Amino acid sequence: MIKEMLKRIIPRSVIARFRLGSEHKKYLLYINSLASEKNLEADFLFGTPLHTNLGDHLITLSEHNLLEKNCSRRVIEIPTEVFQSYKSDVMKVVPADAIIYINGGGWMGNLWPDDELYMQELVDSFSEHRVIILPQTIYYDEKTGNMGDLIREGADKFSRCNKLILCVRDYRSYVLAREYYPKVDVRLMPDIALSYSIQFNDTFQKKVVGVCLRNDRELVVNHAGIALIKTIMEADGYYFREITTMSKKRVSEEEREKTVKQKLREFYECGFVVTDRLHGMIFAYLVGTPCIVFDNKTQKVSGVYKQWLSESSNIFSVFEEIDRDKLESFIENNQEKKKCTNDSLKEMFVKFIKEIEYGRNKEINIGVDSESKM
Q: Which residue of 30, 39, 54, 138 is most buried, as measured by CB atoms within 10 A?
């Protein structure tokens, strides 16, 4: 309560600078160095994390890998707190022809209203640019009073950006986006973290089950399902270990790749993973660890699974009542790692980015045909 009151009183730029800590001077010097470059040619990636959620960092790492390999220009990252701290300075250095990419994730809607407003601010601030919102989940809770206002404000700001493409990562979000933002070019694309590639060949602990469950406002606990899984697996000699997709401390740009890879290794070292986190499922999928998944409040786990991962034999979904026989069969048939086969998902992004590049200064229909992917 006190924290929320302080957020209303203290200017956002002050809060953002406080979160940056001693790094705020580093970023100010960096922005000044960009301002000193003559004829800067670059595209920009906004809304990236410096916080503790490693799922978001995996998204950003995947974006960098794809953009840097497929874009003709350098891509400059501007983390959320940096834009909030130095908005006017940042906007002065962005070239008029720069493509603006906005970090993917699950931050559209009224569950995280500050993030939704930040998304709207970015689109509004760069409304004269080609703006690409990378794959998002959209979730609105009708019981929350600000739903209508947020949707109307978003629709108004988005409609003023004539070259906006909104990518969403599940069919439910696609339907909502088409309804809420009828003037926006909406695309159905995978969570971009699914494009990441990594491989471990070490030994792993076959009888360890990593349990990665939420403890925030997106939590929906399936006590009966979790209890049944523990009963079945403990009877077969498995033991459970708590794991998480969160870091104990904020993660800088420089620490991002090392920290994410360490977390991926942690998921690899388990024989199975049980999770209700979207990127808990994706971490396990990328390293070939069999995964039992529950849904979360925003249904982004089930949305991404049903759209992109339902054919994976390495994932067992528990979105309704558990079929005990099928669960036991899944455990029996997934005693070894399976190589991640995400080439087709990666190719979707390569094609998408190349077509954006081709249409850099043209008004053309960009991207994949979303309707054909459903």
A: 138
The percent of residues above 90 in pLDDT, for the chain, comes to: 76
Give Cβ neighbours of residue 86 (< 8 Å, ≥ 6 apart).
27, 28, 31
CB atoms within 10 A of CB 76: 18
For the stretch 178-223, pLDDT in tens is 999 999 999 999 999 999 999 998 889 999 999 999 888 777 878 8
Look up the pTM and report it.
0.92
What residues have CB less than 8 Å from 70, skipping those under 6 apart? 350, 353, 354, 357
DSSP code string of 324-346? HHHHHHHHHT--S------HHHH
Inter-axis angle of helices 54-70 and 343-358, nearest 10? 60
**What is d(CA 269, CA 263) in angstroms, rounded to the nearest whole number?**
10
How crowded is residue 12: how many other Cβ atoms within 10 Å of its Cβ? 16
Q: Do strands 100-102 and 74-79 pair parallel, antiparallel, or not at all (unpaired)? A: unpaired
Residues pairing with 43 in the sheet: 75
* Residue 296 backbone dihedrals phi, psi, to 5 degrees: -115, 180
Contact 278, 245 (CB under 8 A): no
Q: Tens digits of per-residue pLDDT, 259-287? A: 999 999 999 999 999 999 999 999 999 99
d(CA 350, CA 360): 15
CA-nearest of 245, 204, 210 to 229 is 210
Please name every residue paired with 87 in a beta bridge, in sequence order, or none if there are none.
Answer: none
Tokens of 49: 């994390």
